[in-house]
Protein backbone atom coordinates (compact mmCIF):
# COMPACT_ATOMS: atom_id res chain seq x y z
CA UNK A 1 0.00 0.00 0.00
CA UNK A 2 0.94 3.58 -0.56
CA UNK A 3 2.37 5.15 2.56
CA UNK A 4 0.66 7.91 4.54
CA UNK A 5 2.76 10.72 3.07
CA UNK A 6 1.95 9.58 -0.45
CA UNK A 7 -1.78 9.50 0.27
CA UNK A 8 -1.64 12.99 1.76
CA UNK A 9 0.38 14.27 -1.19
CA UNK A 10 -2.11 12.76 -3.63
CA UNK A 11 -5.04 14.46 -1.92
CA UNK A 12 -3.22 17.80 -1.66
CA UNK A 13 -2.15 17.84 -5.29
CA UNK A 14 -5.64 16.88 -6.40
CA UNK A 15 -7.23 19.70 -4.40
CA UNK A 16 -4.67 22.17 -5.72
CA UNK A 17 -5.37 21.01 -9.23
CA UNK A 18 -1.68 20.26 -9.64
CA UNK A 19 -1.89 17.50 -12.25
CA UNK A 20 1.83 17.11 -12.69
CA UNK A 21 2.48 16.70 -8.97
CA UNK A 22 -0.39 14.23 -8.73
CA UNK A 23 1.15 12.12 -11.47
CA UNK A 24 4.59 12.31 -9.91
CA UNK A 25 3.27 11.04 -6.58
CA UNK A 26 1.19 8.35 -8.28
CA UNK A 27 4.37 7.13 -9.99
CA UNK A 28 6.08 7.07 -6.61
CA UNK A 29 3.24 4.89 -5.34
CA UNK A 30 3.87 2.56 -8.29
CA UNK A 31 7.57 2.39 -7.40
CA UNK A 32 6.75 1.65 -3.75
CA UNK A 33 4.43 -1.16 -4.78
CA UNK A 34 7.00 -2.59 -7.18
CA UNK A 35 9.58 -2.57 -4.41
CA UNK A 36 7.27 -4.80 -2.39
CA UNK A 37 7.16 -7.16 -5.32
CA UNK A 38 3.73 -6.04 -6.51
CA UNK A 39 4.83 -5.88 -10.13
CA UNK A 40 1.38 -6.20 -11.66
CA UNK A 41 -0.16 -3.46 -9.52
CA UNK A 42 2.78 -1.14 -10.27
CA UNK A 43 2.32 -1.77 -13.97
CA UNK A 44 -1.42 -1.13 -13.74
CA UNK A 45 -0.85 2.20 -11.99
CA UNK A 46 1.67 3.24 -14.64
CA UNK A 47 -0.69 2.19 -17.39
CA UNK A 48 -3.57 4.22 -15.92
CA UNK A 49 -1.26 7.23 -15.87
CA UNK A 50 -0.03 6.63 -19.42
CA UNK A 51 -3.53 6.27 -20.75
CA UNK A 52 -5.06 9.24 -18.99
CA UNK A 53 -7.08 11.42 -21.31
CA UNK A 54 -5.34 14.70 -20.62
CA UNK A 55 -2.47 14.40 -23.07
CA UNK A 56 -0.94 17.70 -22.19
CA UNK A 57 0.82 16.18 -19.24
CA UNK A 58 1.38 12.88 -20.97
CA UNK A 59 5.12 13.33 -21.11
CA UNK A 60 5.89 13.94 -17.52
CA UNK A 61 9.09 15.86 -17.16
CA UNK A 62 11.63 13.64 -15.51
CA UNK A 63 12.19 16.07 -12.69
CA UNK A 64 13.00 19.73 -12.98
CA UNK A 65 16.52 19.42 -11.59
CA UNK A 66 17.41 16.53 -13.86
CA UNK A 67 15.82 17.56 -17.11
CA UNK A 68 19.01 17.57 -19.15
CA UNK A 69 20.68 14.69 -17.32
CA UNK A 70 18.06 11.96 -17.51
CA UNK A 71 16.04 11.63 -20.70
CA UNK A 72 12.95 9.54 -21.33
CA UNK A 73 13.35 7.47 -24.50
CA UNK A 74 10.95 5.75 -26.84
CA UNK A 75 11.14 1.94 -27.07
CA UNK A 76 8.17 0.90 -29.13
CA UNK A 77 8.85 -2.01 -31.46
CA UNK A 78 12.56 -2.14 -30.76
CA UNK A 79 12.63 -5.82 -29.82
CA UNK A 80 11.24 -6.87 -33.23
CA UNK A 81 14.51 -6.06 -35.00
CA UNK A 82 16.86 -7.09 -32.20
CA UNK A 83 19.33 -9.80 -33.23
CA UNK A 84 21.19 -11.35 -30.35
CA UNK A 85 23.28 -14.43 -29.52
CA UNK A 86 21.39 -17.27 -27.94
CA UNK A 87 23.27 -17.31 -24.65
CA UNK A 88 22.69 -13.57 -24.22
CA UNK A 89 19.01 -14.00 -25.06
CA UNK A 90 18.76 -16.64 -22.34
CA UNK A 91 20.23 -14.24 -19.80
CA UNK A 92 17.94 -11.43 -20.89
CA UNK A 93 14.91 -13.73 -20.67
CA UNK A 94 15.89 -14.64 -17.13
CA UNK A 95 16.09 -10.97 -16.13
CA UNK A 96 12.64 -10.34 -17.63
CA UNK A 97 11.15 -13.45 -16.07
CA UNK A 98 12.50 -12.68 -12.60
CA UNK A 99 11.20 -9.13 -12.94
CA UNK A 100 7.70 -10.20 -13.86
CA UNK A 101 7.56 -12.71 -11.02
CA UNK A 102 9.31 -10.57 -8.44
CA UNK A 103 6.51 -11.03 -5.95
CA UNK A 104 6.92 -14.79 -5.93
CA UNK A 105 10.65 -14.42 -5.26
CA UNK A 106 10.02 -11.84 -2.57
CA UNK A 107 7.94 -14.31 -0.57
CA UNK A 108 11.06 -16.40 -0.21
CA UNK A 109 13.21 -13.41 0.70
CA UNK A 110 14.82 -13.28 -2.74
CA UNK A 111 14.99 -10.36 -5.13
CA UNK A 112 14.94 -10.27 -8.89
CA UNK A 113 18.21 -9.59 -10.76
CA UNK A 114 18.22 -5.96 -11.77
CA UNK A 115 21.77 -4.61 -12.02
CA UNK A 116 23.31 -5.46 -15.34
CA UNK A 117 26.64 -4.69 -16.96
CA UNK A 118 26.93 -4.83 -20.77
CA UNK A 119 30.31 -4.79 -22.46
CA UNK A 120 31.44 -4.99 -26.07
CA UNK A 121 32.45 -2.99 -29.14
CA UNK A 122 30.37 -0.02 -30.32
CA UNK A 123 27.29 -0.75 -32.42
CA UNK A 124 26.65 -4.28 -31.18
CA UNK A 125 23.37 -3.54 -29.45
CA UNK A 126 24.10 -2.54 -25.87
CA UNK A 127 21.91 0.54 -25.89
CA UNK A 128 19.34 -1.43 -27.83
CA UNK A 129 19.37 -4.14 -25.16
CA UNK A 130 18.38 -1.65 -22.49
CA UNK A 131 15.50 -0.49 -24.72
CA UNK A 132 14.44 -4.10 -25.31
CA UNK A 133 14.43 -4.75 -21.55
CA UNK A 134 12.23 -1.71 -21.05
CA UNK A 135 9.86 -2.76 -23.80
CA UNK A 136 9.58 -6.32 -22.52
CA UNK A 137 9.05 -5.32 -18.90
CA UNK A 138 6.70 -2.52 -19.88
CA UNK A 139 8.81 -0.05 -17.93
CA UNK A 140 9.75 3.47 -19.06
CA UNK A 141 13.26 3.76 -20.51
CA UNK A 142 15.59 6.45 -19.19
CA UNK A 143 19.10 7.26 -20.35
CA UNK A 144 21.41 8.99 -17.91
CA UNK A 145 23.55 11.44 -19.87
CA UNK A 146 26.88 10.79 -18.24
CA UNK A 147 28.91 13.05 -20.49
CA UNK A 148 26.74 15.97 -19.44
CA UNK A 149 27.18 15.04 -15.83
CA UNK A 150 30.89 15.51 -16.30
CA UNK A 151 31.03 18.49 -18.63
CA UNK A 152 28.26 20.54 -17.10
CA UNK A 153 28.15 19.59 -13.47
CA UNK A 154 31.78 19.05 -12.59
CA UNK A 155 32.16 19.89 -8.93
CA UNK A 156 28.54 19.15 -8.09
CA UNK A 157 28.40 15.63 -9.45
CA UNK A 158 27.87 14.08 -6.03
CA UNK A 159 24.68 16.08 -5.53
CA UNK A 160 23.49 15.24 -9.04
CA UNK A 161 24.18 11.52 -8.57
CA UNK A 162 22.15 11.61 -5.36
CA UNK A 163 19.24 13.18 -7.24
CA UNK A 164 19.52 10.63 -10.05
CA UNK A 165 19.40 7.72 -7.62
CA UNK A 166 16.46 9.17 -5.76
CA UNK A 167 14.67 9.37 -9.10
CA UNK A 168 15.58 5.71 -9.69
CA UNK A 169 13.89 4.91 -6.36
CA UNK A 170 10.82 7.04 -6.93
CA UNK A 171 10.14 6.35 -10.54
CA UNK A 172 10.45 2.72 -11.52
CA UNK A 173 12.06 2.24 -14.91
CA UNK A 174 15.00 0.89 -16.85
CA UNK A 175 17.93 3.29 -16.34
CA UNK A 176 20.85 3.12 -18.73
CA UNK A 177 24.24 4.52 -17.75
CA UNK A 178 25.69 4.46 -21.22
CA UNK A 179 29.47 4.39 -21.67
CA UNK A 180 29.78 5.03 -17.99
CA UNK A 181 33.48 4.24 -18.06
CA UNK A 182 33.89 7.45 -20.07
CA UNK A 183 34.25 9.05 -16.69
CA UNK A 184 37.34 7.00 -16.11
CA UNK A 185 38.62 7.29 -19.68
CA UNK A 186 38.60 11.07 -19.60
CA UNK A 187 40.86 11.05 -16.64
CA UNK A 188 43.90 11.54 -18.82
CA UNK A 189 42.40 14.58 -20.47
CA UNK A 190 41.35 16.23 -17.31
CA UNK A 191 43.60 18.02 -14.94
CA UNK A 192 41.49 17.04 -12.03
CA UNK A 193 42.27 13.33 -11.97
CA UNK A 194 41.11 12.95 -8.40
CA UNK A 195 37.70 14.43 -9.14
CA UNK A 196 37.11 12.06 -12.07
CA UNK A 197 37.98 9.07 -9.99
CA UNK A 198 35.67 10.25 -7.25
CA UNK A 199 32.80 10.55 -9.74
CA UNK A 200 33.30 7.02 -11.07
CA UNK A 201 33.65 5.55 -7.60
CA UNK A 202 30.65 7.54 -6.42
CA UNK A 203 28.55 6.18 -9.25
CA UNK A 204 29.61 2.61 -8.54
CA UNK A 205 28.84 3.05 -4.87
CA UNK A 206 25.39 4.38 -5.65
CA UNK A 207 24.75 1.40 -7.92
CA UNK A 208 25.89 -0.98 -5.22
CA UNK A 209 23.72 0.60 -2.55
CA UNK A 210 20.64 0.95 -4.70
CA UNK A 211 17.69 -1.05 -3.38
CA UNK A 212 15.03 0.32 -5.68
CA UNK A 213 12.71 -1.64 -7.94
CA UNK A 214 14.22 -0.21 -11.13
CA UNK A 215 16.49 -2.06 -13.54
CA UNK A 216 19.95 -0.49 -13.74
CA UNK A 217 21.95 -1.13 -16.89
CA UNK A 218 25.54 0.06 -17.28
CA UNK A 219 27.20 -0.20 -20.68
CA UNK A 220 30.86 0.03 -21.62
CA UNK A 221 32.90 -0.26 -24.82
CA UNK A 222 36.01 -0.79 -22.89
CA UNK A 223 35.71 -3.38 -20.18
CA UNK A 224 39.48 -3.91 -19.91
CA UNK A 225 39.77 -0.47 -18.40
CA UNK A 226 37.52 -1.43 -15.53
CA UNK A 227 38.44 -2.89 -12.23
CA UNK A 228 37.29 -6.52 -12.06
CA UNK A 229 36.12 -5.93 -8.50
CA UNK A 230 33.26 -3.86 -9.78
CA UNK A 231 31.69 -6.83 -11.58
CA UNK A 232 30.50 -8.03 -8.20
CA UNK A 233 28.12 -5.11 -8.04
CA UNK A 234 26.17 -6.49 -10.98
CA UNK A 235 23.91 -9.53 -11.05
CA UNK A 236 24.78 -10.20 -14.70
CA UNK A 237 27.68 -9.28 -16.97
CA UNK A 238 26.85 -9.68 -20.65
CA UNK A 239 29.58 -9.66 -23.30
CA UNK A 240 28.65 -8.46 -26.78
CA UNK A 241 30.55 -9.22 -29.99
CA UNK A 242 30.32 -8.39 -33.66
CA UNK A 243 27.68 -10.57 -35.35
CA UNK A 244 28.32 -14.12 -36.58
CA UNK A 245 27.55 -15.11 -40.19
CA UNK A 246 24.08 -16.29 -39.22
CA UNK A 247 23.38 -13.11 -37.32
CA UNK A 248 24.61 -11.02 -40.25
CA UNK A 249 22.15 -12.81 -42.49
CA UNK A 250 19.23 -12.23 -40.12
CA UNK A 251 20.19 -8.58 -39.70
CA UNK A 252 20.31 -7.97 -43.45
CA UNK A 253 17.13 -9.95 -44.07
CA UNK A 254 15.22 -7.99 -41.41
CA UNK A 255 16.51 -4.66 -42.55
CA UNK A 256 16.18 -5.03 -46.31
CA UNK A 257 12.71 -6.53 -45.84
CA UNK A 258 10.50 -5.91 -48.83
CA UNK A 259 13.46 -4.50 -50.78
CA UNK A 260 15.08 -7.94 -51.00
CA UNK A 261 16.15 -8.85 -54.54
CA UNK A 262 16.53 -12.22 -56.25
CA UNK A 263 19.88 -13.36 -54.97
CA UNK A 264 21.05 -15.52 -52.14
CA UNK A 265 21.91 -13.50 -49.08
CA UNK A 266 24.56 -16.08 -48.23
CA UNK A 267 26.57 -14.67 -51.12
CA UNK A 268 26.59 -11.31 -49.42
CA UNK A 269 26.94 -12.07 -45.73
CA UNK A 270 30.59 -13.03 -45.78
CA UNK A 271 31.50 -9.56 -47.00
CA UNK A 272 29.96 -8.09 -43.87
CA UNK A 273 32.11 -10.03 -41.45
CA UNK A 274 34.04 -7.68 -39.22
CA UNK A 275 31.37 -5.02 -39.28
CA UNK A 276 29.21 -4.26 -36.26
CA UNK A 277 25.42 -4.67 -36.17
CA UNK A 278 25.07 -0.90 -36.43
CA UNK A 279 27.38 -0.66 -39.48
CA UNK A 280 25.53 -3.45 -41.29
CA UNK A 281 22.19 -1.80 -40.50
CA UNK A 282 23.48 1.48 -41.88
CA UNK A 283 24.83 -0.20 -45.03
CA UNK A 284 21.40 -1.75 -45.62
CA UNK A 285 19.73 1.64 -45.16
CA UNK A 286 22.18 3.22 -47.61
CA UNK A 287 21.41 0.53 -50.20
CA UNK A 288 17.67 1.00 -49.70
CA UNK A 289 18.04 4.76 -50.16
CA UNK A 290 19.95 4.20 -53.37
CA UNK A 291 17.20 1.91 -54.67
CA UNK A 292 14.50 4.42 -53.80
CA UNK A 293 16.33 7.33 -55.37
CA UNK A 294 16.92 5.43 -58.59
CA UNK A 295 13.31 4.22 -58.67
CA UNK A 296 14.13 0.56 -58.18
CA UNK A 297 11.85 -1.70 -56.16
CA UNK A 298 14.62 -3.87 -54.80
CA UNK A 299 18.14 -3.51 -53.52
CA UNK A 300 20.64 -4.95 -55.97
CA UNK A 301 23.38 -7.26 -54.82
CA UNK A 302 26.05 -4.93 -56.18
CA UNK A 303 24.63 -1.98 -54.32
CA UNK A 304 24.51 -3.90 -51.06
CA UNK A 305 28.09 -5.14 -51.52
CA UNK A 306 29.25 -1.61 -52.30
CA UNK A 307 27.63 -0.17 -49.22
CA UNK A 308 29.12 -2.87 -47.02
CA UNK A 309 32.56 -2.30 -48.54
CA UNK A 310 32.08 1.39 -47.97
CA UNK A 311 31.52 0.83 -44.25
CA UNK A 312 34.63 -1.32 -44.08
CA UNK A 313 36.90 1.27 -45.62
CA UNK A 314 35.39 4.32 -43.98
CA UNK A 315 35.62 2.89 -40.51
CA UNK A 316 38.85 1.04 -40.99
CA UNK A 317 37.34 -2.17 -39.66
CA UNK A 318 38.56 -4.27 -42.62
CA UNK A 319 40.53 -7.22 -41.42
N1 LIG B 1 22.01 -6.64 -31.92
C1 LIG B 1 21.43 -5.80 -32.79
N2 LIG B 1 20.33 -6.19 -33.48
C2 LIG B 1 19.74 -5.35 -34.37
N3 LIG B 1 20.17 -4.10 -34.62
C3 LIG B 1 21.25 -3.65 -33.94
C4 LIG B 1 21.93 -4.47 -32.99
N4 LIG B 1 22.95 -3.76 -32.50
C5 LIG B 1 22.92 -2.56 -33.08
N5 LIG B 1 21.90 -2.47 -33.95
C6 LIG B 1 21.56 -1.27 -34.74
O1 LIG B 1 22.55 -0.29 -34.53
C7 LIG B 1 22.03 0.83 -33.78
C8 LIG B 1 23.03 1.28 -32.73
O2 LIG B 1 23.25 0.23 -31.81
P1 LIG B 1 23.48 0.44 -30.25
O3 LIG B 1 22.52 -0.41 -29.50
O4 LIG B 1 23.44 1.90 -29.95
O5 LIG B 1 24.95 -0.10 -30.07
P2 LIG B 1 25.92 0.06 -28.82
O6 LIG B 1 25.14 0.63 -27.70
O7 LIG B 1 26.43 -1.33 -28.55
O8 LIG B 1 27.03 0.96 -29.29
C9 LIG B 1 20.72 0.32 -33.20
O9 LIG B 1 19.81 1.37 -33.01
C10 LIG B 1 20.25 -0.66 -34.25
O10 LIG B 1 19.65 -0.01 -35.36
MG1 LIG C 1 25.42 2.55 -26.95
Question: Helices and strands in order, then pairings?
Answer:
Blueprint: H1 4-15, H2 19-35, H3 39-50, E1 70-73, H4 86-100, H5 102-107, E2 115-119, H6 126-137, E3 141-144, H7 146-153, H8 157-170, E4 174-177, H9 182-185, H10 193-209, E5 215-220, E6 236-239, H11 245-256, H12 266-269, H13 277-293, H14 301-315
Parallel strand pairs: 2-5, 2-6, 3-4, 4-5
Antiparallel strand pairs: 1-3
Helix pairs in contact: 1-2, 2-3, 8-10, 11-13, 13-14
This protein binds adenosine-5'-diphosphate and magnesium ion.
Could you explain the architecture of this structure?
- The chain has 319 residues and is an alpha/beta fold.
- The chain has 3 domains: 4-57, no CATH class; 64-239, P-loop containing nucleotide triphosphate hydrolases (Rossmann fold, 3-Layer(aba) Sandwich); 245-315, Orthogonal Bundle (Helicase, Ruva Protein, domain 3), CATH 1.10.8.60.
- The protein is built from 14 helices and 6 strands.
- The chain has helices at 4-15, 19-35, 39-50, 86-100, 102-107, 126-137, 146-153, 157-170, 182-185, 193-209, 245-256, 266-269, 277-293, 301-315; strands spanning 70-73, 115-119, 141-144, 174-177, 215-220, 236-239.
- The protein has a 6-stranded mixed β-sheet with strand order 1-3-4-5-2-6, with helices on one face.
- The mean pLDDT is 87.
- Residues 126-127, 178, 219 line the site of magnesium ion.
Amino acid sequence: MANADQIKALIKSHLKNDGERFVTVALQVAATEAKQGHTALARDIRRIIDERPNHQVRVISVSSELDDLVTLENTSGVSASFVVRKDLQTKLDRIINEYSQAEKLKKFGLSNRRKILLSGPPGTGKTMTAAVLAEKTDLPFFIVQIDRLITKYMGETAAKLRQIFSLIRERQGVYLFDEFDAIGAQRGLDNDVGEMRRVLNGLLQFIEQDESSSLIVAATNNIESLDVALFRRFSDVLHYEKPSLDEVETLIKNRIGTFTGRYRLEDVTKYAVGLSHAEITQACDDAIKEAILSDRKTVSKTSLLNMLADKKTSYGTMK
